[in-house]
Amino acid sequence: MAPETDLASRFAASGLGVAEYDQLIRLVYEGxxxxxxxxxxxxxxxxxxxxxxxxxILRPPTPEQPWRVVFAGEAQPAIAxxxxxxxxxxxxxxxxxxxxxxxxDEVINEADWLKSAIYQEFLKPLxxxxxxxxxxxxxxxxxxxxxxxxxMGSTPFSEHERALCTLLxxxxxxxxxxxxxxxxxxxxxxxxxxxxxxxxxxxxxLDKKGRVLKSNRAADEILAERNGISLVQGGLQASYxxxxxxxxxxxxxxxxxxxxxxxxxxxxxxxxxTAGHGNLGILVRTAPIxxxxxxxxxxxxxxxxxxxxxxxQASHALMKRLYGLTxxxxxxxxKLLDGLTVDEAAEELSISRNTARCQLRAIFAxxxxxxxxxxxxxxxxxxxxxx
Length: 387
Prior knowledge:
Layout: H1 3-14, H2 18-30, H3 39-48, E1 53-59, E2 68-73, H4 77-85, E3 102-103, H5 110-115, H6 117-123, E4 130-136, E5 144-150, H7 159-198, E6 201-206, E7 212-215, H8 217-225, E8 229-232, E9 235-238, H9 241-256, E10 266-271, E11 280-286, E12 301-307, H10 316-323, H11 327-337, H12 342-349, H13 353-367, H14 372-381
Helix pairs in contact: 1-7, 2-7, 11-13, 12-13
InterPro entries: Sig_transdc_resp-reg_C-effctor, Tscrpt_reg_LuxR_C, WH-like_DNA-bd_sf
Protein name: LuxR family transcriptional regulator
């Protein structure tokens, strides 16, 4: 049977109208971006199928990790947790035929099923009588597993209802893959954003009109000070007229850098702050785009803001783990990273100069350097600023 004929027969068997089918498919793909994915889809299926539970298992339990499951129905965590810790290992309704909805009586004899420990001790207390499901992708490497149940006193699932769920399976497979790709991208973004935060580097993303789309915490803190640069009516504004004109010239230049889709335009400038504060370093560059990212509110410009007075952050635990430094030695090291001399650090820490110099010699011995400049180069060039 040709795929289009098979799809047409499933659609006819499902009893769905075009509008109903369209709504369910939209819920599948909209569920990719929900905070807890596919909750609206599962609730819609629960109501349409007159089910008491609909669950989507995105990761089965292992000795190393708990299961990851989204479900619609009455939450009963005390009972549900026993599946993860005990009953999953004896569940016969797993490793189902790929991409096909089946009922439990197709896998195991009904009398044996109703007498089984998993039914008597896990499913029956949840008021589950009829059970169907599918492994999307199939086998131990299934992309996800969907399970649907009905309570005592209800009727078995019909062929119409099985066909309805089967229609959704290829879309669910695609949506779960999209969510996985999105999660990977978000993990990568979090790593890079975290590194910028640790380095106290502000990052602001602008659209084609220079409006701020997104900014990180370091940028928010710099802009909130309103010292040299600030956020005004949704855009960046330098405090001094000449610097503000230069800032906006660089932004416009970066926006125009998308026209030929060549290497991104990069510009830089320094922004003056009030007396007693060092200047801010500003880097303006064209945001990377793909051929298909031309939308009205797409990111067009990245503005990087560097505060010369920012301090390197590091914990005593990290200093000990990397170099074996004691808390006192770590504290002195951080003062030196802040730009203080040994004598200035000793005064701030209320210790004698001799004590500070003894600690510094111990730090040299543990890090394998012989001079303070080498120590700073080692620490600033290592992972300390990134951790």
